[in-house]
Write a structure and sequence with these properties.
The complex is a heterotrimer of chains A (about 525), B (about 400) and C (about 550). Chain A is an alpha/beta fold. Chain A contains 16 helices and 20 strands. In chain A, the strands form five sheets. In chain A, strands 8-7-6-16-17-18-15-19 form an eight-stranded mixed β-sheet, sandwiched between helices. Chain A has a five-stranded parallel β-sheet with strand order 10-2-1-14-20, with helices on one face. In chain A, strands 11-12-13 form a three-stranded antiparallel β-sheet, covered by helices on one side. By secondary structure, chain B is α+β, with helices and mostly antiparallel strands. Helix content of chain B is about 20%, strand content about 30%. Chain B has eight helices and 19 strands. In chain B, a hairpin with a 2-residue loop joins strand 6 and strand 7. In chain B, helix 2 packs across helix 7 and helix 5 packs across helix 6. The longest helix of chain C is centred in the N-terminal third of the chain and has 22 residues. In chain C, helix 1 links the parallel strand 1 and strand 2. Chain C has a domain of about 170 residues: FAD/NAD(P)-binding domain (3-Layer(bba) Sandwich), CATH 3.50.50.60. In chain C, strands 1, 2, 11, 12, 13, 14 and 20 form a seven-stranded mixed β-sheet that branches. Chain C has a four-stranded antiparallel β-sheet with strand order 17-18-15-19. The chains are: A alpha/beta (about 525), B alpha+beta (about 400), C alpha/beta (about 550). At the A-C interface, helix 5 and helix 12 of A face helix 6 and helix 13 of C.
Chain lengths: ~525, ~400, ~550
């Protein structure tokens, strides 16, 4: 039997689709298999109540890499762009932050903020270059690896002596120290800390959170947008591009097993019992699931399997969706402001305190929240006059000590609503329907280990050369024919497409070299 | 807490004693003991030289209880072992024993040892070092159980030309037991495993039994062996015979790879002359990728057996390619001994490739002391292919009476 | 008025080390000290009757043997005696002992987990590999990665070479090690909570980080890379208390012609025409010197003893933001006899070891959460020792001295000074924790000195009483320590140098910063070097 496909991609998450589109454009025959009914993985739009739909997991677009847009000719239609961040204050004295400026703080803070952002943007730009390349291997004689490392050294030096020093100092540091050094305003510090810790198992005092902050800025300088039709529209566009390039995408086809024969990949087996032969399988699933469940640890070497079990992916972000019969009241906010990104992170210590219980498997009694009302700029998401609230809530640890029972989920939902109600009194009365996705739910619905939106914690010891683990950082796993292209690989998660693009490039390069 | 809520099993502070210790202590006249994995073990009991000749001339008994032992069982036991070690374990049927070596992902040797296929799907792995953490990590993805059983099994090596006669006199029928075979027999109501294995390169057996029967076994064995020159021996005599047989020892010929600090201090099986133990036909085993790569580009080191001129033991010596140009050494000796039975000056060593092919002439810089003064001597050495000592009786089945 | 070749400010062990090496190079050196005793935080104090307290630092391992040997400290009265082991008491009444003897240690670990006992060897090798990597650089100046100077490039190449020598896989492991948390590092080896808790203490001692904070695996190294007689990782007592270390270095300094002035606190470092020319003492005296070397921490040096206008603005800002955080307290206790610990068997060698009372990783991390809120830990990590069991000179026969190092204890309570009631309550917290495991302990207490970071700052002068003169986080290590661009012991002011623990390689009674500073100074003066090189390891 001859192989019909050059490559099978397991999972039609946005990275899988990017990878599929690029391989298809390069003339490869690609089959994408998606377990869910919809393509997009964690970038989908779906109903959560009658007449109400929402970007079910990721809800803001801020990281889609320019290189990905360019290579695939993506032109997502945006309902709103360059959202301001409004750091909510209980007394209504909110701060309005843009990418460069902040309103509502002292003039020193305002000046410092401008400088801070300028530097962070510069560093993020440096990072962007390397996030959009497969990471080099260390200690090899491969000219491409040596070139990339030399380029990195050169780019660092090109920052100038002082800035290079600053970069080397900041990269391992925590955001808490940096913001307390610079700013007085608690709201400002809190809002910046929130950006640094969202989606991670880190608090602002954890070293490494400047890196996560920079990561968020890479590619789009942290400018948030909302696509028309929610995040699913981005995935749909990607799927369209992939299909136009010749890729085949099948949905509702869960892959139960990636098949190994004679020490190499030979295809996949679907839950429906279908066997599809193919010598190249690219997994968009997270590394743990790929190795431990889809392939089976026995097909790898012990040291590698052990590293994969040590890979940390402890999701902490829950998602709250509310169907509202109208906008709530928040003191000091105009209607237009509701279309922005609202954050509840009143100061840096609040964020750290919210993190504390997560270390012990408990939820935050006072969580950190990022709120959007997408229906304001995209009315189709809710019935006329009604609204959708979509919020990312932290911290809700995946490994909740008591387990994520319905009761635990309900209790946390009440906590979150209570916290929001302190800023938007009476919001409870407007709620017609609600849905809380805990990391356990996210794991179930989106097939991500630990419900972690980076598939694996984004810390320096799981970054660049060592992401996801030593020996698999160049997208190929130590099993012939098997590749990764998801968020668990370099550079990490977020709707960026970088991992999918890098993977496609690495696979094509490898083919060429062989 | 001011009072103890439960009885704490305090750890023993001194050396442990094997269940055979009372008998060994009775026979010991030299009182020279060392620690072996926490156990008291004799260097020599009455005379190192005579003990050595018990191995080569009669029946020598060595207490190997401190050897690390693991029980591996479960539906995936074979698959598990096949991924763990480099050789093909499917070829090792129940009742057979395999010498095996296992590597890390980089193809560097963690340890060597023997694997006893006790019964279908049930194995005992026996090694010098302790590896429970690694063996546990290796279970990820397999339906297999690994249990530590060092303390649960007492073991004796019964080695030498009359060992078969001794065991026969004890009533054991081992005529059909081939080298690397094992059998289960009844000993006073307990199951005893007998394997035709050993560390001496001679005819010999190893007996494995529950600790409670250890003394009874010892007594029965020594009763039976009386007419066949049975002697208990210590580690030094065993070490001498081990080198003659060309066997490797951990911490001598190689270091467990997971314990090396400096780079380049570990060895691959290919570098230890164990190519025959590496089966690339197996689709996956620990170290396979790295070893395939090493095979492609060539190894850095090679283990050599050396027949050295003269009679001065070459311990701790450098090895050179030429006698004159001794500025850059190509390797060093790892184990050395005078062989009383071969009347040869023998050694094991490690040299950089391409040196060390069988038949190569090398030079060894030997330091030796005579009445306080040290002397230095360059001795010629020949790389030999076969073990220094390999008597026909070692593999004869049935073994002869002597 | 006399002009010295060099004035060293602060007679702690680093200041004295710099002074000694400079004096040995033939310089006319004076070392000024604000207190009426020398030693800084390496002191032996008589605070109660005939008891000698090592009332700040209390054990010794990091002191570089190269320096010991070069200064011939044995001739000046220093003797380091190794001790071994540690014990962690479990809340359930059990204990986990770490024994000096390898096999006993193995069996004790196996009592909790065979897996962990077997994992120890690879843990130890992996950790030692990192030690070996860093130890080579302790007695050298950290190269500036932004510099094109041949010396810096040479050092960078040396580091790069050492790094690549490890081979690809171990390079990645090294990157991971330097960036991960001690908790995660231990998770990769061990499964038993108390064993992890017992190892994790070394990852947070003296730092304002929790065991889960990335970067703490390195801190573990900082406590492992010391040695006693080539036994890397072992710890020892200075006979006569830690003051013996300072005293011996001081004696070596004086033997080389150096001069020490106590009760000579420096009010200002005098800068004229952009050059340091001497110091003004608190009593109004001035001392002139061709150069000034500060052994004080950088904050105290540049923020308290200098005018802002004499410093570049960026440097001043960096110093202001240099993190020196008080996170550890100390209890020094005179005992009427030896307390008993019923969990331990009679005559246990563990009585001589470090004792700890936190048996889980969760309790370790919770102790940190209290500190973040500006309080001492309700359930602190205590490193307790009874040095008199090894060193009979420190208390009358039959009596004992107990040293309790306490993590975490904030510099201030919620941002204000400690009250004496709070200090007492802090002391009581520690004593109560120990008494839980030793019923007769409280009755044996004759005298207890409770030292908060605030007290240490007030008396010794270290900002926030931080034992390392600055956090050991990546942003403050190597070429970043204390300030990027000024990591080679030279300050931005001509003639002013730094030699304290705020500089590379950081704190602990190591004397390496002092030695490294002396080498750089002698280089600038074009004098021949008196500072020894690293013994090396291969």
């Amino acid at each position: 039997m001859t192989d019909t496909w050059d490559a099978i991609i397991v999972g039609a998450g946005h990275n899988g689709l990017v990878c599929a589109a690029l391989l298809a454009k390069a003339g490869r025959k690609v089959l994408v298999l998606e377990a869910n009914e919809q393509v997009g993985g964690a970038a989908i739009t779906r109903d959560f109540a009658d007449g109400f739909s929402v970007s079910a997991c990721a809800h803001l677009l801020y990281q889609l890499q320019p290189a990905v847009r360019k290579d695939l000719g993506l032109k997502p239609r945006l309902a709103s762009d360059d959202l301001k961040t409004i750091a909510l204050a209980e007394d209504g004295e909110h701060l309005h932050l843009s990418n460069r400026t902040v309103k509502g703080v002292s003039s020193t803070d305002a000046v410092e903020y401008r400088q801070f952002r300028k530097r962070m943007t510069r560093f993020a730009d440096l990072l962007t270059t390397y996030l959009n390349k497969p990471p080099p291997r260390l200690g090899t004689k491969n000219p491409r690896d040596i070139m990339t490392l030399a380029q990195l050294g050169f780019d660092l030096r090109r920052l100038g002596r002082d800035e290079m020093r600053e970069f080397l100092r900041l990269i391992g540091m925590n955001i808490y120290d940096e913001v307390t050094e610079r700013f007085d305003s608690g709201l400002l510090k809190g809002a910046i800390c929130l950006d640094a810790v969202l989606g991670t198992h880190l608090g602002p005092r954890s070293p490494n959170t400047i890196m996560t902050y920079l990561y968020r800025q890479a590619g789009g300088h942290g400018k948030c947008a909302q696509p028309v039709g929610g995040m699913g529209a981005v995935s749909d566009e990607l799927a369209h591009v992939a299909r136009s390039a010749g890729a085949t995408i099948r949905t509702s086809v869960p892959v139960s097993r990636i098949v190994v024969e004679n020490g190499r990949i030979s295809g996949v087996e679907t839950a429906g019992g279908e066997n599809i032969r193919c010598m190249t399988v690219i997994s968009n699933a997270d590394p743990k699931q790929t190795v431990m469940e889809l392939v089976g640890a026995r097909h790898f070497e012990t040291g590698f399997a052990r590293r994969i079990t040590h890979l940390r992916a402890r999701g902490n972000a829950a998602k709250l969706h509310l169907a509202l019969d109208g906008l709530p009241e928040i003191a000091g906010l105009s209607k237009k402001d509701f279309g922005q990104r609202l954050v509840i992170a009143p100061d840096e210590n609040y964020v750290e305190r919210a993190f504390n219980p997560a270390k012990y498997g408990k939820t935050s009694p006072e969580p950190v929240i990022e709120i959007t009302f997408p229906s304001l700029s995209d009315p189709a998401l809710a019935p006329t006059g009604h609204h959708v609230m979509s919020a990312v809530v932290q911290y809700a640890p995946y490994a909740l000590r008591e387990g994520w029972s319905d009761a635990a989920s309900e209790a946390f939902k009440a906590t979150v609503l209570g916290t929001i109600a302190r800023y938007a009194p009476g919001i409870e009365a407007r709620v017609m329907a609600s849905e809380l996705l805990t990391p356990a739910d996210i794991e179930r619905e989106f097939h991500m280990s630990g419900g972690h939106w980076h598939h694996a914690e984004l810390t320096l010891d799981q970054f660049l050369f060592v992401r996801p683990v030593n020996g698999a950082a160049q997208y190929s796993l130590p099993l012939d024919g098997l590749y990764l292209c998801g968020a668990g690989t370099h550079p990490g998660g977020g709707i960026s497409g970088a991992a999918g693009r890098n993977a496609a490039r690495a696979i094509l390069q490898r083919e060429k070299a062989a | 807490m001011s009072t103890r809520p439960f009885e704490i099993q305090e750890v023993h502070q001194g050396r442990l004693q094997s269940p055979f210790h009372p008998r060994l202590a009775e026979l010991d006249t030299l009182n020279t003991w060392h620690t072996w994995k926490g156990y008291t073990s004799a260097d020599a009991l009455y005379c190192e030289d005579l003990e050595y000749f018990a191995i080569r001339n009669a029946t020598a008994v060595f207490d190997l209880t401190p050897m690390t032992k693991y029980r591996i069982s479960g539906p995936d036991a074979l698959d598990y072992l096949n991924r763990l070690v480099t050789r093909d374990m499917a070829k090792i049927k129940p009742g057979r024993v395999a010498y095996a070596v296992w590597c890390d992902d980089q193809g560097q040797v963690i340890d060597d040892g023997t694997i006893f296929h006790l019964r279908e799907g049930e194995y005992r792995l026996c090694s010098q070092e302790r590896h429970f953490a690694w063996l546990q990590a290796a279970t990820i993805g397999f339906d297999v159980t690994v249990e530590h059983e060092t303390e649960n099994v007492a073991a004796l090596a019964v080695q030498g030309p009359t060992s078969y006669s001794t065991l026969s006199a004890m009533g054991l029928d081992l005529a059909e037991l081939k080298p690397f075979g094992l059998t289960h027999v009844d000993f006073e109501g307990s199951e005893m495993m007998v394997s035709r294995t050993g560390f001496t390169g001679d005819l010999g057996y190893e007996l494995w039994i529950e600790p409670g029967k250890a003394i009874a076994l010892w007594d029965a064995l020594f009763d039976a062996g009386k007419l066949f020159g049975i002697r208990a021996i210590g580690t030094h005599a065993l070490e001498q015979s081990r080198i003659e047989a060309g066997f490797l020892a951990a911490y001598m010929e190689f270091l467990p790879a997971d314990e090396t600090i400096r780079s380049g201090r570990s060895r691959s099986p290919l570098e230890l002359g164990l190519d025959w133990l590496v089966d690339f036909k197996k689709p996956n085993f620990n170290g396979r990728r790295a070893l395939a790569e090493e095979q492609r580009r060539g190894s850095t080191w090679r283990l050599v057996k050396l027949d050295i001129d003269g009679n001065k033991p070459a311990n701790h010596s450098y090895i050179f390619a030429k006698s004159k140009n001794n500025k850059s050494e190509i390797g060093f000796i790892t184990s050395a001994s005078w062989s009383p039975v071969c009347k040869q000056n023998i050694a094991l060593g490690t040299v950089r490739t391409p040196h060390g092919k069988p038949g190569d002439s090398l030079w060894v810089e030997i330091y030796y002391q005579r009445e306080m003064h040290w002397n230095r001597k360059m001795a010629h050495a020949t790389v030999v292919d076969k073990p220094f000592w390999f008597p026909p009786r070692r593999s004869a089945t049935p073994p002869g009476p002597f | 008025m006399k002009t010295y070749d060099a004035i060293v400010v602060g007679a702690g062990h680093n200041g004295l080390t710099t002074a000694a090496f400079l004096a040995r190079a033939g310089l006319d050196v004076v070392c000024v000290e604000k207190n009426d005793y020398i030693g800084g935080a390496a002191v032996s104090r008589n605070l109660y009757k005939d008891w000698t307290y090592s009332n700040c630092s209390y054990v010794c391992s990091l002191l570089r043997p190269e320096i010991f040997r070069a200064l011939e400290l044995h001739k000046h009265g220093l003797q380091i005696t190794p001790y071994g082991g540690s014990v962690t008491f479990l809340e359930n009444g059990d204990y986990y002992g770490s024994y000096h003897d390898e096999e006993v240690a193995y069996r004790e670990m196996a009592r909790f987990s065979r897996h962990d006992a077997d994992a120890y060897k690879s843990y130890s090798a992996d950790t030692m590999r990192q030690c070996r990597f860093i130890r080579e650089f302790l007695l050298s100046t950290a190269p500036d990665p932004t510099s094109f100077k041949p010396g810096d490039i040479r050092e960078l190449v040396k580091i790069g070479k050492k790094f690549t020598e490890m081979g690809e896989d171990r390079m990645y492991e090294t990157i991971r090690f330097w960036t991960m948390s001690v908790a995660e590092y231990l998770d990769e080896y061990y499964e038993t909570d108390v064993i992890k808790a017992s190892f994790s203490g070394s990852g947070i001692i003296g730092t304002a980080l929790g065991i889960h904070s990335p970067g703490t695996a390195y801190v573990l190294l900082h406590h492992y890379m010391g040695e006693v007689d080539g036994n890397v990782g072992s710890w020892g007592f200075a006979r006569g208390g830690m003051g013996a270390v300072s005293k011996s270095i001081a004696s070596a300094f004086q033997a080389a012609g150096g001069e020490i002035r106590t009760e000579a606190g420096v009010d200002k470092i005098i800068v004229r025409n952009g050059k340091a020319t001497g110091v003004a003492l608190e009593n109004g005296d001035e001392i002139e010197g061709r150069l000034v070397v500060s052994a004080m921490d950088v904050k105290r040096t540049f923020l308290n003893c200098m005018d802002e206008k004499d410093l570049p603005e960026a440097f001043h800002r960096r110093v202001k933001n240099f993190k020196i955080r008080g996170s550890s307290g100390k209890l020094n206790i005179a005992l009427d006899g030896l307390p008993t610990f019923p969990a331990l068997p009679k005559g246990s060698s563990l009585m001589h070891s470090d004792m700890h009372f936190i048996d889980s990783m969760e309790r370790m991390e919770l102790a940190y959460d209290d500190w973040k809120d500006g309080h001492w830990s309700e359930d602190p990590y205590v490193d307790m020792l009874i040095p008199t069991l090894n060193d009979p000179t420190m208390a009358p026969p039959g009596k004992h001295f107990m040293s309790c190092f306490v993590q975490y204890c904030p510099h201030q309570i919620e941002g204000r000074r400690w009250t004496s009631e709070e200090r007492d309550a802090f002391g009581k917290t520690v004593i109560d924790q120990i008494a839980k495991y030793s019923p007769d302990f409280k009755d044996l207490i004759l005298h207890a000195e409770v030292r908060t970071p605030q007290d240490i700052e007030d008396e010794i002068g270290i900002t926030e009483g931080n034992i390392f003169h600055g956090e050991l986080t990546m942003d403050q290590l190597l070429f970043n320590r204390p300030v990027p661009g000024y990591a080679q012991y030279r300050s931005p002011v001509e003639g002013l140098y730094m030699c304290g623990s705020s500089t590379h390689p950081g704190g602990g009674v190591m004397a390496a910063p002092g030695a490294n500073a002396a080498r750089e100074i002698l280089k600038d003066l074009k004098r021949s070097n008196t500072v020894p090189e690293n013994f090396g390891d291969d």
